Amino acid sequence: MRASLRPSDPAVSPAIERVNAELFTLTYGAIVRQLLTDYEEIEEVNKQLDTMGYNIGARLIDDFLAKANITKCTDFRETADVIAKVGFKMFLNVTATVANWSADSMECSLILEDNPLVDFVELPETCQGLSYCNILCGVLRGALEMVSMRTEVKFVKDMLRGDDVFEIRMKLLEQMPEEYPYKNDE
Amino acid sequence: MPGGAREVAESCVDSLNMELVATYCKRLHPTKPDLAGRRIEAIGYQVGLQLAERYTRERPRFTDHLESIKFICKDFWAEVFKKQVDNLKTNHKGVFVLQDNRFRWLTRISVDALPTTGAQNESAVAANAARASQAAGQYLYFPCGLIRGALTNLGVPCAVSAEVTTLPACEFNILVLKRVE
Questions:
Q1: What SUPFAM superfamilies does its record include (chain B) (predicted)?
Q2: Which of A51, A59, A77 is nearest to A134 (CA)?
Q3: What does the alpha-carbon distance between residue B29 and residue A157 come to, in Å, rounded to a whole number?
Q4: What is the pTM of this model?
Q5: Residue B3's pLDDT is what?
Q6: Which of A17, A43, A79, A100 could pair with A73 as two cysteines, CB 3.0-4.6 Å apart?
Q7: Which of A20, A32, A47, A120 to probe by mutation at the B interface, max B CB count within 10 Å?
């Protein structure tokens, strides 16, 4: 993946336009609510959210690579760091921590203590199986696939279900050979 | 966590809006554009209700419909679309037309354009414009719902429709519904 932190540079370029999070948070909430009405199966809602995220991630990656001050990542560990420190910061304005690496460095967790998607949200009893923030898994999967990493991404801890943090488990399944139609500019 | 001061990248809002349209118009109801539109409008309505509630917490009640509509044109628009409505017209019989010459959510839309070189240049340009307006229309279900929700919260029951004039300009038509006494 073409991304790693250049320590001397500010992590995020000032070219990012920011808006009040309220509209974003409420819009996401209303979408989840509508999907819950449209589908009887909660698992299907989780799947839809993941698909929406995948499509968003596949588009956002360009924006990210264009605006973030980063260079090519050498391995999955570096990629995870960039996602946690630059990606989450740039888009959601929060920072994630990378933790719980597997011995083979193919699997890790992103820990979020703060998450704008869930401001004002409380899950009713009837939504216990809902992975409310599942869109984030899709975003990560979609973005990583665009830079040749096939992954499996899922929530293993969820504050809306009573956990102390949000924990996103990210597993690298396959690194496809890079075949860019262009050359890196470095 | 108080939502007021928190900020996210605008591309989050844009992406969510684009994907919302793609989900309902292309994936869930590709053959039923009206149904897709109603679903998206309903989502906007919920958001409008909640936003108006938040934005007016510190204000005295509006005394008439015109005052509520002006609030939408100025404060609400500025919060959500980062500018004010450019022109407000009314027939004084319950119809209001809000004109935005550069509607923020239409400024970043791209449409697959037909080639515009050669002999069919003019017709291709016209066809592209028509396609662009049609595609852009899908992105107005949500703001229509947003406006209807906000006005409903302010005690103005209404129906809202929109049309794209020349991208990225558009007009929102608000028809205030008579209350059944």
A1: Ligand-binding domain in the NO signalling and Golgi transport (SSF111126)
A2: A51
A3: 33
A4: 0.88
A5: 42
A6: A79
A7: A20
